[in-house]
Design a protein that fits this description.
358 residues; mainly alpha; 3-stranded antiparallel sheet; two-stranded antiparallel sheet; 12 helices; 36% helix; 7% strand
């Protein structure tokens, strides 16, 4: 025979189920019951992944960069707030160069990928200038890394097929097992190519929504400015030689192992609205994971994560672009106050101008 307390408990439970049924309906209630105790009661549907054409458009501005630089860009793009911080740091310390810059950067609480991009100040400047695109790149790299690397290979094959991606005095281009790899010709000097995505791939590739172009090329070929010298950063784990791309397994390499971003900016795709194709949104810093040299092995990762950084004028160009001048990702000759290659900040090599097959 049930006691009064037991009858009360059953009555309250019945009222609770009835209330949930009214609120959710029978089908949703069944789904909640199947989730089990402790699970979230209403799971939002995941946002659709980017289609191949969108992925190709997203990576087109960087697909023809050297492999290790692509790895650093993809990794750093998952830390948009740190991109902003690092760019402001360079603006506020214009006299730091070479070894002195390496010492100060090493002290900062940034992911190794962001630290590594201080070797390429014009690259960092334009990622800051295009924060909406940068964040979408980070979001997609986090959630669709294999797809984004497939898109890079697709674009490289297109550029090769159009006759616009070849070995030059600045970089070596190899094609093995249908995989196009790009490496510096001189291991101590890295050149960042300048090219127009609407021309170099043999067909016009449109700009990502809201993207602010950084290139000055007016022909279908790659051109090069002054190279970035990476020697002063050799002793740091976050330096150039710590990075690479694992094309076979479609992943980023860092310190001899697989790199996995610890940023929580994009930890849950359902948490925020999206930028670009996916609307507008905001982000929280939330990226306090391990930022030192990770050594061999994976760096750890969170599960799925949220949408893109948004709400900025050309991705933040209004917040300091005037102080940068017309900085560019192109290496040197086309850069502004800081875009001038290794001579400006890394003790870089003197560069030739021109490239491709001209």
């Amino acid at each position: 025979m049930k006691t009064l307390t037991e009858w009360s408990r059953h009555l309250l439970a019945g009222i609770g189920v009835f209330g949930v049924t009214l609120a959710l309906g029978p089908l949703q209630l069944q789904a909640v019951q199947q989730l089990g105790p402790g699970a979230q009661t209403a799971a939002q549907p995941p946002s659709a992944p980017l289609a191949p054409e969108q992925l190709q458009q997203l990576v087109a501005p960087i697909a023809l960069y050297p492999d290790a630089l692509v790895a650093q860009i993809l990794a750093a793009s998952t830390y948009p707030t740190q991109i902003v911080e690092a760019e402001r740091f360079l603006q506020q310390n214009p006299n730091l160069t070479g070894a002195a810059l390496g010492v100060e950067v090493d002290k900062q609480d940034w992911d190794p990928s962001v630290k590594g991009l201080t070797q390429f100040p014009s690259v960092l400047a334009d990622m800051d200038k295009n924060l909406s695109w940068t964040s979408e790149l980070g979001d997609t790299n986090y959630n669709q890394q294999a797809d984004i690397m497939t898109a890079i290979q697709f674009m490289r094959a297109k550029a090769q097929g159009a006759g616009n991606l070849n070995t030059t005095p600045q970089q070596s281009v190899t094609n093995q097992d249908n995989t196009v790899s790009i490496q510096p010709e001189n291991p101590d000097v890295v050149y960042v190519p300048d090219y127009d995505p609407e021309l170099v791939y043999g067909y016009p590739v449109g700009l990502w929504p809201g993207f602010y172009p950084w290139w000055g090329a007016e022909n279908p070929y790659l051109s090069f400015g002054v190279g970035f010298g990476i020697g002063p950063f050799f002793g740091y784990g976050w330096g150039w030689h710590g990075w690479g791309l694992d094309w076979r397994n479609r992943g980023l390499m860092y310190g001899g192992g697989r790199y996995m971003s610890r940023s929580s900016t994009f930890y849950n795709r359902n948490a925020f609205m999206r930028g670009g194709y996916r609307g507008q949104g905001s982000f929280a810093r939330g990226d306090s994971g391990l930022r030192g040299y990770g050594g061999a092995g994976a760096r750890g990762s969170g599960g799925v994560r949220s949408g893109a950084f948004g709400g900025a004028n050309h991705g933040g160009v209004a917040r300091g672009n005037s102080a940068r001048g017309a900085s560019s990702m192109r290496g040197g000759s086309f850069g502004g106050s800081r875009g001038g290659g290794g001579g400006a900040r890394g003790g870089g090599g003197g560069g030739s101008h021109g490239g491709g097959h001209r």
